[in-house]
Amino acid sequence: MTTQATPTARVALRTIVREWGRIGCIGFGGPPAHIALLRQLCVERSGRIEAHEFEDAIAACNLLPGPASTQLSIFCAWRLRGRLGALVGGACFIIPGLILILALPALFLATSPPTWVRGAGAGLVPGSRARASSRLRWALSMTLLLAGAAGIVIGVAGGPPPG
Length: 163
Fold this sequence. Notes:
The chain is an all-alpha fold.
């Protein structure tokens, strides 16, 4: 079995943006859903990655710490477009969920949230709402700080994902 160290085919960057962004938006169900969508895109539909290489990539990503499906999406984008594809594909895969994760607390913690949000929060005890609010703001700040630091480290370290 051979593993190539460079992308096999140059795929248009707009294709990476469109397809990885689509998976990032519709891939609800966690890693099993993401892996199935990536398999359909890269192995079954386009045939740009061979099935055995895709399976090897899943095995390798499962051994690494962190979200395996995110690592697999970055690997697949790297195989199709190189370093730039990995960066763009990873961002397009991650950003839709990140926006949702950041938008929901902002919406729930707004000084004047919409009626449906106030109705959803009406069952909370006022004291626990205040404690949760301060904790969520702290968690959101830490999440943004860690995401920024991780982005800097990844940008400085460079290099292709393992594979």
